[in-house]
Every structure is written in C-alpha cells, then in structure tokens.
Write a structure and sequence with these properties.
By secondary structure, the protein is α/β, with parallel strands linked by helices. It contains 5 helices and 6 strands; from the N terminus they run E-H-E-H-E-H-E-H-E-E-H. The chain has one domain (about 1-180): Flavodoxin domain (Rossmann fold, 3-Layer(aba) Sandwich), CATH 3.40.50.360.
Length: about 180
C-alpha cells in the first residue's frame, strides 16, 4: 500500500520529526508498505478558488495527484492560533471528497499548549469525516516539552504512543484492503 505522510505546514520541523519517527515504525510492520513524506514547504501552493484542478500550477496538480493516488495517510500538523494551518486546509479544499473515501488516516499534531489537542477533535476530524476517511481513534499530540531545543524528539512516552498508533493504523490498513475487495 502507498502511504502518504503529509507534513501540513510550510514552517517548523517538529511535525517532520514526528513523521520520520512514524516512517521508521511503519518500516517495522510485518507487511511492507511504500511510504512517502510530503512536505508542503517544498511546493509552490496556490490559493484554492474553485477552478478545475488542471488550471492550477504544476505543484498544486502534483499535490492533488499525490493525495488521490495514496491508499492511506498520516497527517502531521502544527496548531497555530488554535487552528490547523491555512496551507493544510487549502490543500484539503483542492481535493475531491471522493479521493480519500474509506482510506485510513492517522493524525499527529504539535502545539504550544496541552489544550490545543482539541483542534484535532474540533477541526481536523470533522474535515476527515467529511471525506469519509477511516480515522484511527488514537492520535498523538505533542507540545514543546517533548522536543529538545534543537527540535529532536526526546520523550519516550511520545515514541511509545507513536508505535501504538502505527499498530492501530496497520489494522485500519488491513480493514481497508477488505473494503476494496467488496466493491
């Protein structure tokens, strides 16, 4: 299966660090999966205004295609001003609601306060529910204290929760395979 590890920001490195950790965990699963980390900072994104996908620049068309062709996703996002970044929401606005239907999704997020984990529940999950994604029940939320001043993940409990989330994600991957055969 092709798993897209989506870094939903154009600034900072903590969400990338979390995705790299998850990528290692996925490589330890009994089944082999193709993973790709996509950093939005590496793309020239355009503001989505409702025009057809083929009228956006090459980078936007590439991002849309990456989303559509993936079988599953791990979405990493920082929390800014009590919300997901506009770049991530803009990308969701570019994608057809059918593109992510019944595909597994796990979420990791990082914020400056412990309370910002509610953004996942109140903003990100409703968007993914609209897409009818199979969202794993256990997401991992981190905050500044889980990282060194150099941005390295230093909290072993977070590592343990990422491994657990990856195991549940793997079960969702297996379920989604059976859904494909029932179509």
């Amino acid at each position: 299966m092709k798993i897209l590890l989506l870094n939903g920001t154009i600034v900072g490195k903590k969400t990338r660090v979390l995705l790299e950790e998850i990528d290692k965990d996925i490589s330890q699963l009994p089944q082999k999966h193709e993973t790709k980390i996509v950093d939005l900072e590496n793309y020239e994104m355009q503001f989505v205004d409702g025009r057809p996908a083929d009228q956006y620049n090459d980078d936007m068309q590439t991002l849309i295609k990456e989303i559509e062709e993936a079988d599953a996703y791990v979405i990493a996002t920082p929390i800014f001003q009590g919300s997901i970044p506009g770049t991530l929401k803009n990308l969701f606005d570019a994608v057809s609601p059918l593109a992510m239907r019944y595909k597994p999704v796990s979420i990791v997020a990082n914020g400056g306060t412990l309370q910002h984990h509610l953004v996942i529940e109140n903003q990100l999950k409703p968007i993914l529910d609209y897409f009818r994604c199979m969202v794993t029940p256990n997401y991992v939320y981190t905050h500044t204290n889980h990282f060194s001043t150099q941005g390295e993940l230093i909290d072993e409990d977070v590592r343990s929760r990422l491994k657990e989330m990856t195991k549940v994600f793997n079960q969702y991957l297996q379920m989604s395979k059976s859904l494909e055969t029932d179509k």
